[in-house]
Amino acid sequence: MKLSRCFTALAAAAALTTAFTVQAREYSVSTVLSDAFPWGQAATKWAELVKERSEGRITLRVYDNAQLVAGDQTKEFSAMRSGLIDMAVGSTINWSPQVPELNLFSLPFLMADNADIDAITQGEAGQMVFKAIEKRGVVPLAWGENGFRELSNSKQPIRTPNDLKGMKIRVVGSPLFQDTFSTLGANPTQMSWADAKPALTTGAVDGQENPLSVFDVSRIDQVDQKYLTLWHYMADPLIFAVSPNVWKGFSAEDQALLKQAAYDAGRWEIESSRAAEAQRLASIRSRGVEVTELSADERQAFIDATAPLYQKWEKRIGVELLKAARNAAAAQ
Length: 332
Ligand code: X2X
Prior knowledge:
globular; alpha/beta; single chain
């Protein structure tokens, strides 16, 4: 081969490599919790399925601990909308500042059990929620689950709203949580998950609310949370979603592949995390945490105390959406 031809061949090879690198770029997937938790496992599963089914053409890389938004989980939705983040598996709570309809799931005692969650997410109400997300500029693909959120504290067992009086409780990203805990007579403080554990450690706050999986894996018992009330007051679904411009860049076949993989990862995560709940509770108990289970009457006292919140919040959430969700739950 002549030298000049050799250079041409080399240049062509280099161009090809560049093209390949551009095509094979990684897509970022944001989560708040790592794959030590069901939440992070949902994202990892999605990445695995996409890699396998695209035969390595599409690579999703998971960035946990909300690191792509410097720990501020309430900025995740905006970052995805603007394209700073390609994809996310995010909680309805953390996206509710930008999508008010997502506060639906945070209404206290709207859903009593898993059947209620499924009836809402898998039916008309779930479709309305997805439309609301689309309207605000992000493409939703499938549902996952963080789980029913239970209440822990360092002071005393909580059986009645009165037991919560004056207690400093760390809450998450939406003003609805401020309203709920203020209505119950507590003293709520909003902070990110990154700040929550230090605040529990120093005693800056007395309590917090999170699913059993989070309590268990994060060893919340080690930061003085000796009391846990199972009140099942709300559950936050997770949503697999994609930034709009990234979505448009995929062919119809790849869009279908991503969506089906998200759906399968979500179903897998929902089932496996529900199946682990009893074991989670047993291990929390075995570490000496005092678990309070409420009688129907005791739970009703919390339902009655928080009922006035519905009037204020149904306007923000949407009267029609709330009606659809209530009908779905009532039909169970
Ligand atoms: O911050 C929390 O409490 C967490 C981890 O559950 C969410 O991101 C909603």
